[in-house]
């Protein structure tokens, strides 16, 4: 799959994510209309945004500039492959 290069499509994708988040939050609030639900949804949205910022900006800028990933799946693959390599290097030679 190629990278998304069109500015208009990138902006549209951002609005679709916003729409999806707003629709999901609205449906959850309709299903359980109390203050606790609203607060939990707000905390979930805030913490998810901070996690994304941490994974794709903070790690690259402040921890290791080689930590660049195209998305969560690429990050998980890199973690899995590094653990696999560590496991092989720890194996005892025969």
Can you walk through the features of this model?
The structure is a single chain. With 94 residues, this protein is mainly α. 78% of the residues lie in helices and 0% in strands. It is built from 3 helices and no strands. It has helices at 7-31, 35-63, 72-90. Helix 1 (7-31) packs antiparallel against helix 2 (35-63).
Could you give the order of the helices and strands?
A: HHH
The low-pLDDT segments are none
Into which percent range does the helicity of residues fall? over 70%
The strand count comes to 0
Offer a concise description of the structure.
The chain is mostly helical.
Core attributes:
94 residues; mainly alpha
Annotate the secondary structure layout.
Blueprint: H1 7-31, H2 35-63, H3 72-90
């Amino acid at each position: 799959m190629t990278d998304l290069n069109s500015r208009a499509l990138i902006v549209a994708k951002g609005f679709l994510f916003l729409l999806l988040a707003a629709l999901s939050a609205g449906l959850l609030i309709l299903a359980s209309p109390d203050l606790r639900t609203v607060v939990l949804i707000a905390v979930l949205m805030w913490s998810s945004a901070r996690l994304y910022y941490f994974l794709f900006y903070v790690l690259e800028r402040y921890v290791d500039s080689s930590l660049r990933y195209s998305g969560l799946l690429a990050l998980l693959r890199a973690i899995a492959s590094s653990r696999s390599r560590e496991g092989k290097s720890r194996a005892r030679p025969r």
